[in-house]
Amino acid sequence: MKKTITVVGHYGMSLLMDVGHFPAVGETVEGLGLETEPGGKGYNQAIAASRLGADVNFITAVGGDDFGGRCESDLISEKVGGRYIIQFPDLKTACAFVINNEEGKSEVYVYPGAIRHVTSEHIRRYTSVIQESSLMLLQNEVTTEALSEVMKIAGRAGIEIIYNPAPARKIPPELFPYITILTPNETEAAILAGMDPERPLDVDKALDILHGFGAANVIITMGGQGSIVSGNEGRFHVGALKGKVINTTGAGDCYNAALSVKYLEAHSIIEAAEYAAIAAGMQVMMPGVIANMPYKDEVDEVFRKVKGTMISDL
């Protein structure tokens, strides 16, 4: 049987502009460059997983506009085999505005569009797709209602779930036991754990709280500081790939896709976390988002050279 990763999330159009600095209130800043490309966390994750060699299903929603009309052809061009596109002819497709400054920092503004109209009823149409998957890769681009339905269908069928809780929000407590690997960044971990996201994160406290909720394995990602992996295999620090950061947009999506691909292959969370750090590190060293999601051969080559060297015990 083929091992298939199913992603649920949004497809939309991204407009990416480079600027020297972010504008102050009322200031107009002239762009240094402009690109357009399809995006959305779900789409990014699906494409990254496909490029890394996985068989991928993608469940999404689009509106009745030109952007939505491109969805299937974009998925075909990226070799995403399972294309499950919910049509909302009277709505708009998601759109994101990504502003990148010269320091490699990004501001992202998202209009969610059609994806926020997906209900549990829509999700139930794809019950067989979910139940026949090997792994679910999920984030918060759908409503809590739709996310809960996906997790319950997958969890009750014994399908493992990697859940990236972004954009940050709390989820119903009963969903945590369904999650195989929870992958928040520091802000998302604080929000999920009921801690102050404006204060430096007490990582150990956050991990203990999240495990207490029922999440067996948690990876807290910390950008250039790497990640903390805590769960069935122990507690470890995984370093970040060294290099000049150009653009961090899409790094989390690349990370979670690579984590999913390697976990499905090796069934080792710590090995998957190291592989994900390499893939995301490669992605942020180039401009753009989808254009620079790495391919399997590229990541595998670096992974062979550094495997095991980025991991340290805590």
Compose a concise summary of this entry.
This protein has 314 residues and is α/β, with parallel strands linked by helices. It has helices spanning 41-51, 66-69, 71-77, 120-124, 127-131, 144-156, 186-193, 203-213, 251-266, 269-284, 296-306; strands at 4-8, 12-18, 33-39, 55-63, 82-88, 94-100, 106-111, 135-138, 160-163, 181-182, 218-221, 227-231, 234-238, 311-313.
For this entry, give a set of tags.
34% helix; single chain; 6-stranded parallel sheet; alpha/beta; 314 residues; UDP-N-acetylmuramoyl-L-alanine:D-glutamate ligase
Structural notes for this entry:
This protein is α/β, with parallel strands linked by helices. It has one domain (4-20, 33-313): UDP-N-acetylmuramoyl-L-alanine:D-glutamate ligase (3-Layer(aba) Sandwich). Helices cover 34% and strands 24% of the residues. It has eleven helices and 14 strands. The strands form three sheets. A six-stranded parallel sheet has the order 5-4-1-8-9-10, with helices on both faces. Strands 3-2-6-7 form a four-stranded mixed sheet. β12 (227-231) and β13 form a beta hairpin. α7 packs across α8 (203-213) and α10 packs across α11 (296-306). The radius of gyration is 18 Å and the shape is globular.
Q: Look at the helices and sheets and give the structural class.
A: alpha/beta
Distance between the termini: 38 Å
- Which CATH class? Alpha Beta
The domain count comes to 1
Counted beta strands: 14
Radius of gyration: 18 Å
CATH superfamily: Ribokinase
